[in-house]
Amino acid sequence: MSERAQYSAEEQQRIREQWIAGTAPQCPYCSVTMNSRGIGGGSFGLGYARRRVWLLCPRCRRSAIFDAARATRN
Ligand SMILES: [Zn+2]
User: Fold this and answer.
1) Is the pTM of the predicted complex or chain greater than 0.90?
2) Would you put residue 48 in left (φ > 0), alpha (ψ -120 to 50) or beta?
3) Using an 8 Å Cβ cutoff, are 53 and 68 in contact?
4) What's the number of CA atoms in the CB half-sphere (13 Å) around residue 32?
5) Domain contains 38
6) How many angstroms is it from 26 CA to the middle of ligand 1?
7) Is residue 23 part of a domain?
8) Mind giving me the DSSP string for the chain?
9) Which of 15, 54, 61, 67 could form a disulfide linkage to 25, CB 3.0–4.6 angstroms apart?
10) Is residue 72, in this structure, part of any structural domain at all?
């Protein structure tokens, strides 16, 4: 499989929820733990700094990027 498939919006949302909940997100297709990588952003400890996280499935190579902010709770 060499296609660059993407997660649907719904799948990305599920992955994001797992990340926010503090659990290691798993690929909805492969059920393997995804690799996470921080992107840019300031230093740790700056509450207002926007961090983004890049989650990559090591098996199917799908990836998802989103804001890693955990502070908001509505
Ligand atoms: Zn996968």
Assistant:
1) no
2) alpha
3) yes
4) 13
5) yes
6) 8
7) yes
8) --------HHHHHHHHHHHHTTSPPB-TTT--BPEEEEES---TT-TT---EEEEE-TTT--EEEEE-------
9) 15
10) no
Tokens found for residue 69: 């902010």
Whether 15 contacts 32, CB under 8 Å: no
Count how many domains the chain has: 1
Q: What angle (nearest 5°) sits at the alpha carbon of residue 29, between those of residues 68 and 39?
A: 25
pLDDT per position as a tens digit, 20-35: 888 999 999 999 999 9
Ligand 1 centroid to 68 CA: how many Å?
20
